[in-house]
Amino acid sequence: xxxxxxxxxxxxxxxxxxxxxxxxxxxxxxxxxxxxxxxxxxxxxxxxxxxxxxxxxxxxxxxxxxxxxxxxxxxxxxxxxxxxxxxxxxxxxxxxxxxxxxxxxxxxx
Amino acid sequence: xxxxxxxxxxxxxxxxxxxxxxxxxxxxxxxxxxxxxxxxxxxxxxxxxxxxxxxxxxxxxxxxxxxxxxxxxxxxxxxxxxxxxxxxxxxxxxxxxxxxxxxxxxxxxxxxxxxxxxxxxxxxxxxxxxxxxxxxxxxxxxxxxxxxxxxxxxxxxxxxxxx
Lengths: 109, 163
Description:
The complex is a heterodimer.
Chain A: H1 3-20, E1 25-26, H2 27-38, H3 49-58, E2 62-69, E3 72-79, H4 81-108
Antiparallel strand pairs in A: 1-3, 2-3
Chain B: H1 7-16, H2 22-45, H3 50-61, H4 63-100, H5 110-114, H6 117-133, H7 137-162
Helix pairs in contact in B: 1-2, 1-4, 2-3, 4-6, 4-7, 6-7
């Protein structure tokens, strides 16, 4: 596993929570937005998104609802209050992480 | 001539790696089918032919990896459901059995039993608690039927011995 794979794996749930903070989305939509916004940096097998979504739903962070749109059954995911709380905590944690990492890297230059 | 790959083929490859309840698998495969259909539609709109579009969608999806992780994510909760499906009715049937007998060990008659609030509370709890626990309502109903079967067995057999 490459360092990027490791970072991607460690941040998948946070990225999903961040996207869903904008509103309910279905799996394919999430995968497309992730790719577009990161310029492909967080590229991963799209199917791996679903185990993450299901795990997050089991944790109580997400709810899901089936909707019939354009003849297709789409499962829309949305944040629960607990999911919003986790997003808040993780945002703060990631900001600190990036800040500290930047400080370490800067001091080495 | 090689046969053409279809979305059904891809879904069958995923299903072959899943060993979960039919309901869970059906829901999962419906979700994946939508994903593949949308990915194919997008590739077609960009000029790819149908076969190339599907091959690309299947490759980007990562069929084997996704199936393995989905199986892992759902195995725990499904095992827990199976344990609960057996344990909860047994527990309630035992409580009801305790209510069904008088302190001297003889069974209460059914009219007497029906007047006890505890009887109705246990009967309702045996339906409501699994109903809230299980995602699939028919599991709760199956648990409730199992509960009554056990209750009848627990009450009738000692009564026969007592006679």
